[in-house]
Every structure is written in C-alpha cells, then in structure tokens.
Specification:
- The protein has 317 residues and is of the alpha/beta class.
- The chain contains nine helices and 15 strands.
- A seven-stranded mixed sheet has the order 4-5-6-7-11-8-12, with helices on one face.
- A hairpin with a 2-residue loop joins β9 and β10.
- α2 runs parallel beside α3.
- The longest helix has 25 residues.
- The radius of gyration is 25 Å and the shape is globular.
C-alpha cells in the first residue's frame, strides 16, 4: 500500500498501473496466507516418493509361465503414485542358475521397467551368481554368492538395508557387525525411514521346522540390532502368503515394535498357516504392495490381482 502513495491519481495510465499492481499485491498476500497456514511437515503430506514391493514372483514350476507376474507388475506400476522403485524379496525365479528362466522373468516385465530402479535380495531359489548379474547392484554388494548378498542403498528419505537371510541362519558375528556398522552410519541416521528387506521371515506364518529355527537365530542375533537403530519396517517373503504382523519386539507384541509384512506375488502353492497370535492378517492371493512415503508418515497398501486394496496401514512418526 505504501507504493500506491507515489502515484499521480490524476493520470489515467498510472491509475490503471496502480490497480494492476494492487491486484498483484492482493494475490500475493492471499498466496502467502495460504502457505503460512500449511504445515510443510504435515505427516499426511505426500512428497511424491513411492515404491513397490513384490516377493516370490516364481512361476508355477509345472507351467513356467511368468505372464501373471508381468500382469501384477503392470498393475502396480499403474498406481496413481507412479512408483519408480521396485523392491523384490527374493525367489524371483524357481531356478536361479537357469539363464532361460531369468529370460522368461524379464520378458514378462516387457518395457515396464525401463525407467524403474530394481533392487532384490537373495531368496533360497535364486541364491546364485546369476542373481548379481540381473540387477544394478551398488558396488558395495558382494558379487559371489558365497560372500552373501548384503548391501544398502538410499532413495529419497528412505534407507534400505538389504539382507541375505540364506546366510543369517548361521548367526555369523561378522554379519551382525556389518549390520550394526551400516545402521550406525551417518547415511542411515540422516534418513527419515529405515527399512530392512530379506527373504525369510523373522516371524513365520507356517510351522516349517527349518524356517522356525532360522527365525529364532535371526531374532536372537540380528533383531536386537534392528531394534537398537530404529528400523521402521521389515519386508520379507518365502512362505507364499500375504501376512502382516502386529508391532513386534522380540517375541512379544509391543506398541513400539517393528511391523513385518510378507508378500507373495507369484504362482506357487502357498504354505499352510499355523496359529500365530502375532499375525494380524493373512491372505492367500498374489499381492503387490505399494508404499508411499513422506517425512513423518508411511502408508502401506496391499492389492490383489484385480488391483483392489484389501489391507492398509499407516506408520507415523
């Protein structure tokens, strides 16, 4: 308003100029007011980062057809969040040593992954040297399966720690030490979210002796490190069902615990679930999981083969 006092009110051109500037000033004030009334760190704000999680995308071994996986992937990529990251929970193929089967896997994806970064952990079926040749692993990832497929990467405000559960069942001190070092790094600490991805579950759904034994060792050796450094979510696969646990701390359900989500995205037969008080939902259907992330909120939605959501949660900070 002060600027208006400098204009000659008798000059028509200047009056028009003054009115034009007045409109600009009023518009600017409205915009400033709207912006100042918004919380830039609103926990429900969406900052544009989303990713897909699939696991156990194997074809039915009697048919060898990866087309259903391709269809599920296409549905996931068409989500309104337009995810540009695909995270895989292992067992992408039935035989990790078969170049022919890997070719079928990639053929099913078509051109859908041209501008999508893909990261995978090792499953028990694809735990081979061919696995490292399929994906653009960071240089920190071991290239030989005997060394394990452990690595980390960051996308947006999320730190991903990719674990090789094929090896974790041995409870090696060197692997536990590596995990601790990665989570203590400045990169991990500066991230808003920290997500652990592995193939085998910390909390199984089915009563399979080998899986139960492995899970007990992982909870004993590795879980305390994940808890110490504030891991926000665990993603896994292996038992061919969708499941979501209650927040878990060790063996117990706890409000401040870690949620584990298991997905199954292929055509292999599901494991038979046991009675587990820590499992909040189970679904025997191929699933894709969409995770949308903002600074203070992570939204997770599970979709079936028709693209219909059937389970969703929000984790807030």
């Amino acid at each position: 308003m002060i600027l208006l006092h400098f204009f000659n009110h008798k000059d028509r051109n200047i009056k028009l100029f003054r009115k034009k500037n007045l409109c600009i000033i009023l518009f600017t004030l409205i915009v400033i007011t709207l912006i100042s009334g918004c919380d830039r760190d609103d926990k429900n704000a969406v900052d544009g980062f989303a990713f897909i999680f699939l696991s156990d995308t194997q074809a039915n071994p009697e048919i060898g057809d990866y087309v259903p996986f391709g269809g599920l992937l296409e549905l996931a990529l068409s989500h309104e969040s337009r995810p540009k990251l695909l995270v895989l929970g292992g067992d992408n193929v039935n035989n990790g040593n078969s170049a022919e089967e890997w070719d079928a896997f990639w053929k099913a994806t078509g051109e859908n992954l041209e501008d999508v970064f893909v990261a995978s952990v090792a499953g028990n079926h694809d735990n081979s040297q061919l696995l490292a040749q399929q994906f653009d692993y960071p240089q920190t990832a071991p290239k030989k399966n005997t060394e394990g497929f452990f690595y980390t990467f960051t996308r947006s405000n999320v730190f991903f720690i990719m674990l090789d559960s094929n090896i974790m069942g041995a409870g090696n001190a060197s692997d536990v030490e590596w995990l601790s070092e990665q989570l203590a790094s400045s990169v991990a600490k500066e991230a808003d979210w920290r997500i652990a991805v592995l193939h085998h579950p910390f909390w199984p759904v089915a009563n399979v002796p080998r899986d139960t034994q492995r899970a007990e060792i992982m909870r004993d050796k590795f879980l305390p490190v994940l808890e110490e450094y504030g891991i926000d979510l665990i993603l896994c696969g292996h038992q061919h069902v969708y499941s979501r646990t209650a927040p878990m701390r060790g063996e117990d359900i706890s409000e401040d615990g870690i949620i584990q989500i298991m997905t199954a995205s292929g055509a292999k037969e599901s494991y038979t679930p046991g009675e587990k008080d820590y499992i909040e939902i189970i679904a025997d259907t191929p699933v894709y999981l969409i995770i949308e992330v903002s600074t203070r909120m992570m939204s997770l939605t599970a979709f079936n083969t028709d693209g219909e959501p059937f389970d969703s949660i929000r984790i807030e900070k």
